[in-house]
Design goal:
Blueprint lengths: L2 H9 L19 E2 L3 H7 L7 E5 L4 E2 L3 H7 L3 E5 L14 E2 L9 E3 L5 E3 L5 E3 L3 E3 L26 H10 L4 H17 L3 E5 L17 H7 L1 H26 L5 E6 L12 H22 L4 E5 L8 H6 L4 E3 L10 H8 L4 E3 L8 H4 L2 H15 L5 E2 L12 H13 L1
Parallel strand pairs: 2-6, 4-10, 10-11, 11-12, 12-13, 13-14, 14-15
Antiparallel strand pairs: 1-3, 2-3, 5-6, 7-8, 8-9
């Protein structure tokens, strides 16, 4: 099997010749830009620029030689045409984050400013103090405002924003050409992320402190809001998917973190009534337009209580499989979805074993998890979320090599 065949077989619950693996197929399976060059050196690869494609999370876009060395089977195409399947030198500009990332490159260096104390600001709002590894906003960009009426978006403004985000003919042509070139230049599975996302999120308008309460206080308003998002998502899907469906394999439909460390962000009833109908319509239409492709939902945390509901949305793949949250084992997660929805991630406990354990601990846990999650197929290996700056290259390599042996 080549990489694409391997991934597609696994997603369709068919036998595979080896475990399919992912690094940075989307923006929650990536690697920190602060450790990327050290990872290249540990893999005995020559230096190449650290291309930071997600500056909010400070993620490096891995080169194909890193994917080769770790045995990874997926490349990304983002909604603006960015990919790691081939070089796009015209998109990148040098910025080394005040010397902290030698060889660093970003899409638009004019957005950054280095202050006298070494703090770096992004867009005048988010900041990265010296020694930090990500940018941060106050309250992580989700202010905790609980006095007075709950804030809610103006639906007319929402419509104007969604209208402005509709794909133009020129954007569709460019994305078609990019996806076609990716298909021709790589035998890896192609993950399309960005333009097919609907924008529904339990921590959406107003943030996670506010939006779940708004769902309880005014469900009629939420139905109006979600119907608007669905309308425009379907318009983009109907315009774009007929042009790219022959060139992509996995389609990201949203990043919607329904779980925290212990429980759900809102009740299963809220998901069933206010999210499930819109997610199902979205997935059904994507499957009608691109029947060969698999849809992918990213949702963090203790999701075990809504796995059945997520499957009712016709989602094909769930990520990141954060089984340590909520007190359920990898086997319980697998048994709940076995043969019905593929899992992508969950390879190691990223908050305990990976940062705090030894390499032997990592190897043993990966072997146990892969034996469970890959049984009966329907599994792509990755960490639970991104590989952060404090994870050593030796642990990253051990992670992927243990998966290859499992």
């Amino acid at each position: 099997m080549n990489s694409r065949e391997r991934v597609m077989a696994a997603l369709n619950f068919q036998p595979v010749d080896r475990l399919p693996k992912d690094l940075n197929g989307m923006r929650s399976t990536g690697v920190s830009a602060f450790t990327y060059q050290a990872l290249r050196r540990a893999l005995q690869l020559p230096p190449k620029p650290t291309r930071i494609h997600d500056t909010g999370q400070m993620l490096a876009l891995p080169h194909p030689d890193v994917l080769d060395a770790l045995g990874c089977d997926v490349v990304i195409v983002e909604g603006d045409g960015l990919t790691n399947a081939y070089e796009q030198p015209g998109l990148w500009h040098d910025f080394d984050f005040n010397g902290r990332i030698p060889g660093g490159q970003v899409r638009d260096a004019s957005k950054y400013r280095v202050l006298p104390d070494g703090t770096i600001t992004l867009g005048g709002l988010a900041s990265m103090p010296p020694g930090a590894h990500v940018f941060n906003d106050e309250h992580a960009g989700q202010p905790l405002i609980l006095d007075g009426d709950l804030p809610r978006p103006d639906l007319k403004e929402v419509r104007r924003t969604l209208e402005a985000a509709l794909l133009t003919d020129a954007q569709i042509r460019d994305l078609r050409d990019t996806c076609r070139r990716v298909r021709e230049s790589s035998d890896r599975a192609v993950f399309f992320w960005g333009q097919m996302c609907m924008g529904l999120c339990i921590h959406g308008y107003g943030g996670l402190a506010v939006f779940p309460m708004l769902c309880l206080e005014d469900p009629g308003f939420i139905h109006e809001l979600h119907a608007l998002h669905l309308e425009y998502a379907l318009r983009n899907a109907r315009a774009l998917l007929p042009e790219i469906r022959d060139y992509v394999d996995i389609i990201g439909t949203d990043a919607d973190d329904w779980g925290n460390q212990q429980s759900l962000m809102a009740s299963p009833a809220t998901f069933r009534d206010l999210f499930l109908p819109y997610r199902r319509q979205h997935n059904v239409e994507i499957h009608r337009l691109a029947p060969r492709c698999n849809t992918f939902l990213h949702s963090c945390g203790a999701l075990y209580g809504i796995l059945d509901l997520i499957m009712q949305t016709e989602t094909n793949i769930l990520n990141p499989v954060q089984w340590p949250a909520g007190g359920h084992t990898p086997l319980e997660w697998k048994d709940k979805v076995r043969g019905r929805m593929a899992l992508w991630g969950g390879g190691v406990d990223s908050q305990h074993t990976l940062p705090l354990g030894s390499i032997a601990d990592i190897e043993q846990e990966v072997a146990r998890n892969v034996a469970i999650l890959a049984k009966d197929s329907g599994y792509v290996f990755a960490n639970i979320h991104n590989l952060l700056a404090d994870i050593s290259p030796e642990k990253i390599i051990a992670l992927y090599r243990a998966a290859a042996k499992a």
